[in-house]
Design a protein that fits this description.
The protein is mainly alpha-helical. About 55% of the residues lie in helices and about 5% in strands. Potential calcium sensor.
Length: about 140
């Protein structure tokens, strides 16, 4: 989760501004209007200070706090072809849109790290586990 936060925090000031959030949403090409992005941002900005801090993002995506429909939307960001699973290639494409130069080899390792059933893909249940498990990874 910290890694996702760092990708959205483009100026590396330790918080995500509404502009950074909108830019990341646009880079992911999810068809989100400025109004929808502003509303989503407002929901995550729990303390109302105009920024999303890491703890707010963790609270939003933490275990039990995110509704299945919201988790499904997050999954769909990465499932580019809509087949119900995320491949290393899809992961690589999304990360490139976010400005992260992640090689296909590195993405394959990332998929392998969360691929519980060993099929070479991240399915929705594996994605939920990945998004709701908190750890100290950078």
């Amino acid at each position: 989760m910290k890694w996702v936060f760092e990708k959205f925090d483009s100026n590396k000031d330790g918080k995500i501004s509404v502009q950074e959030y909108k830019a990341a949403a646009k880079a992911l090409d999810r068809g989100m209007s400025d109004g929808e992005a502003a509303k989503a941002f407002e929901l995550m900005d729990k303390d109302g200070d105009g920024f999303i801090e890491l703890n707010e993002l963790m609270e939003m995506f933490g275990e039990g706090s995110m509704k299945e429909a919201e988790m499904k939307k997050a999954f769909e960001v990465f499932d580019l072809n809509g087949d119900g699973k995320i491949s290393a290639e899809e992961l690589s494409q999304v990360l490139k849109r976010l400005g992260e130069g992640c090689s296909l080899s590195a993405c394959r390792k990332m998929v392998k790290g969360v691929d519980g059933n060993g099929d070479g893909f991240i399915d929705f249940n594996e994605f939920i586990t990945m998004m709701t498990t908190t750890n100290n990874e950078a």
